[in-house]
UniProtKB/TrEMBL annotation:
Protein name in the entry: UrcA family protein
Species per Swiss-Prot/TrEMBL record: Algimonas porphyrae
InterPro entries: UrcA_uranyl
Lineage, broadest ranks: Bacteria, Pseudomonadati, Pseudomonadota, Alphaproteobacteria, Maricaulales
Span of the signal peptide: 1-27
Alphabetical keyword list: Signal
Amino acid sequence: MTMTTKPFARTALLAGALMMTALPAAAQVAAKVEISAKSNGERITVAVPTSLMTSDDGMEKLYTALQRKAEKSCKVTIPMRIGSSVTVGRCTRKLMNGFVADLDHSGMAALHAQRS
């Protein structure tokens, strides 16, 4: 390499190194895990952003979202699939218990125990 190409080569190497470290961090922020639970013979699956499990506020938001998903599933999705109505309270509890168990996160388990 000549003296004029060295600065460019160093800059390119540095930029490449920064890109390689930034990609895993960006992927980690956007990472999701699928959890599922079963009620009335029907499995409901939800994609959960793992970034929400890093703070109390995030876990509260996630818990509320899971609760809404469980209720909607018990009011609409499951009855539509099985062709009859279900007991919404019991169905929602079963789904929430399953979601929290499948998530296997101590903070979420503690929040669920507190709210149940």
